[in-house]
Write a structure and sequence with these properties.
Oligomer: homodimer
Largest interface: A-B, 38 and 38 residues
Distance between the termini of chain A: 54 Å
Strand order of the largest sheet of chain A: 1-3-2
Radius of gyration of chain A: 21 Å
Shape of chain A: elongated
Strand content of chain A: 5-15%
Order of helices and strands of chain A: EHHEEHHHH
Chain lengths: 132, 132
DNA sequence: GCTTGACCTCAAGTCAACTTGAAGTTGTAG
DNA sequence: CTACAACTTCAAGTTGACTTGAGGTCAAGC
């Protein structure tokens, strides 16, 4: 035990085996060896996969994520992190406005939400934050 | 006046002319006529473009957006809107956690943020919400 | 010992949303 | 009137993140 084969990792992570092989090819994860042809993974790979998912949600590209993992790869630049955080916060604002807009549209009695003043206003807001 | 040509719309919207032609080909916008070969747009197209950007931010595909615009296209299903709103709210939660994580990582004294307990916790949170 | 199913590799395909390139047309400034 | 920048079309290319397919390998159960 303690070694997982690809289907177990796939199960546990929710990622397709092909994705795991792809990630390995991109240098994002490593298999800890082979059993015959077959990749064996140590359980820590699951943590790594979570980290990757985290990075993706944060809007990093896979190549950026893999850079972060390299031993002395581009230092995880703190300014870069802060910058990403700010971008995310901007995005959160927009998404919040939009989600309100959608909820309103769903509840709005007007046949065409497009005509509803509240909705219009939310659109404008969102349009503005888009340009900032 | 009152008719804009493609470069003006491009300027005003921040979208490339090629994108505007592409949107037209996809049925997302219309030009209100031609002057010779050249498309002329009425100013309302800008509002439409905002709406498109809004939809994109909300996570709709262009094809879905264009459906919403069709005269008697698939009624803008209220359940669908609510569902999107919920998805967005989920996403907002995740992004919020991540942005906190990034800010913390940027401030964290630990050389490897990956080892920081607070950071670890944020990762776990985010990993969980990912599966819900 | 043979079949089967889960794995393997490598190249090519997919998808969304655009962009680019080649080759042609046209409104306008000089 | 001519030059030319800005448009036009249409097909093909790009990017990121995967997936699919063809063809091959291997361990385990019958």
């Amino acid at each position: 035990m303690s070694k997982l084969d690809i289907s177990e990792v796939s199960q546990a992570s929710g990622l397709a085996p092909s994705t795991l092989r792809y990630y390995e090819a991109q240098g994002l994860i490593q298999s800890s060896g082979r059993k015959g042809l077959r990749r064996q993974y140590s359980p820590e790979v699951l943590e790594r996969l979570n980290l990757i998912a985290l990075g993706q949600s944060a809007g990093f590209l896979l190549t950026e994520i893999s850079e972060m993992f390299t031993p002395n790869g581009p230092i995880i630049n703190r300014d870069r992190l802060l910058q990403k955080a700010e971008q995310l916060e901007q995005k959160i604002k927009r998404l919040t406005a939009i989600s309100k807009g959608l909820r309103h549209a769903a509840a709005c009695p007007a046949d065409r939400h497009l005509d509803c003043p509240k909705f219009q206003q939310l659109i404008k807001q969102s349009a503005l934050s888009r340009l900032e």
